[in-house]
Specification:
mainly alpha; about 0% strand
Length: about 210
């Protein structure tokens, strides 16, 4: 397997050392798809010395080509697509799916997929939640077998999520979204995944935003 979590031009989260990481949550890419990923600059924050508009223009063709290939063979897990398209998986103040919000701001179809703000969604399609391996392992250990996870288990999971945040000093509020994605990757219902996200956000706020 030659999949890489990060493009050479994608800045990993503060938890990683910049090396390409492997995970069972990564989708398996064909050689053609991997070649396209290698051409995409997945960095959300482009350094000032880099021409952001040039990055945007260079990304357009490989992103659209990659998505076309992935969709053609149903390679993207359905719950990850739903994270983009289903209003129930967006708990923000504005109603509608993440895709709907892009459309309201004037970006739909190809324009949305090539917009710089779409990069986190593309990364989720490809690699799952942007969290360190140790955090993922501890979170999934608490879940156990997802097939046996029930509503009564959510209290223990949200408590463990808060403990993980304190232990690993997950300080950026955007990581609440990554716990939400990880919960979905583990088969939790929309309501349970939302509980994880809310507890993660509250723990980050309480611990680090005083």
């Amino acid at each position: 397997m030659n999949e890489r979590r990060y493009s050479a031009r994608y800045e990993p989260s503060g938890f990683t050392d910049g090396k390409a990481l492997m995970s069972r949550h990564h989708i398996k890419l064909t050689a053609d798809e991997q070649a396209l990923v290698d051409r995409i600059d997945l960095r959300v924050n482009v350094p000032h010395a880099v021409d952001g508009h040039a990055v945007y223009l260079a990304n357009k063709e490989p992103i659209l080509a990659l998505l076309k290939l992935l969709v053609a063979r149903d390679a993207i897990p359905k719950h990850r697509i739903a994270y983009w398209t289903d209003p129930k998986l967006n708990s923000g103040r504005l109603k509608g799916s993440h895709r709907d919000l892009f459309a309201r701001n004037g970006s739909s179809g190809a324009e949305a997929y090539t917009h710089p703000h779409f990069k986190p969604y593309l990364r989720y399609f490809l690699y799952g939640a942007d969290l360190p391996d140790q955090v993922i392992e501890e979170f999934e250990k608490q879940i156990g077998n997802p097939e046996w996870f029930s509503g009564s288990d959510i209290i223990a999971l949200t408590k463990r999520t808060r403990e993980i945040i304190r232990s690993y000093r997950v300080q950026d509020s955007t990581y609440a979204d990554e716990f939400h994605k990880l919960a979905l990757d583990n088969g939790l219902s929309a309501s349970n995944a939302e509980s994880v996200k809310k507890n993660a956000a509250e723990a980050i706020r309480r611990e680090f935003k005083r």
